[in-house]
């Protein structure tokens, strides 16, 4: 309800400008998938897709030398002709075919002049604009009469806490650009897996590797994963059993060196190998052993395949760009094959 209210106000706010157009928000991550570990503060993450404004087009350009492990893109902003729209009676001057003087006098600046660095959409400039949009929109929402909103500092997303009496909610609003009509996006904030999660077994990277240019947009598979969990929930006999398994591993075994993204990947793979008819409550212990056995095999082989990239077992309802569907499966445990000491350490932890 909150995000629907925000979206209505967002659309009105940008209607007479050339800022990106926010679309309906999509809930992603553990809170919306139903496996947030108990005892930890739940963060509700929502992804707000951004469409180009009139007279503009977005083009995604791969910016990571083809490295599938941490693909990042640049969003190139191109001005497109709107002369036909003006002929149809719309009050819209063409950025390409009207004089600069006329454009300055009669029309607001293009997106290239506001939120871009060069020809590319800038994450930090967009984040600052998005924060101002949320801040100004809040007072127009019915929820503002009963909830108190406090912003949290962040340069690549919009984070805030909502409180009402003893109730408290943490919200992180990410924004991104959809790849075609697929369920894959480029997004403002890197995901846990792209940052290495909380695993102590990830190969140590130089400090400069943590720096992300302001024009870099990491690829995210969070929407595709959320759709996978929705697909599973419609078919398993006990719709929460697999979530309880994931919740148990991420909560009880927290701090053992395996990140929540590793457990999530393993559980999703097991869901595609163990028949869904066998996910009944009385088989809870067996499914726990299946998950542990799958992880053990992956550790021995030093290979855990990414669940989305190159996975031929994904349900047909999850839409992927051809480049993502046809790529060779990515090995998340590749660093264990390169680092024998890390492999011995992770086997001891197992």
UniProtKB/TrEMBL annotation:
Subcellular location: Membrane
Pfam families reported in the protein's UniProt record: Mab-21_C
Ranges where the Mab-21-like HhH/H2TH-like domain occurs: 258-308
Entry keyword annotation includes Endoplasmic reticulum: no
InterPro entries assigned: ITPRIP-like (IPR026250), Mab-21_HhH/H2TH-like (IPR046906), MAB21L/cGLR (IPR024810)
Membrane topology classification: Single-pass type I membrane protein
This protein's GO CC annotations: membrane
Gene3D superfamilies referenced in this protein's UniProt entry, alphabetically: 1.10.1410.40
Alphabetized UniProt keyword annotations: Membrane, Signal, Transmembrane, Transmembrane helix
Assigned protein family: Belongs to the ITPRIP family.
Official protein name in the record: IPIL1 protein
Organism: Machaerirhynchus nigripectus
Name of encoding gene: Itpripl1_6
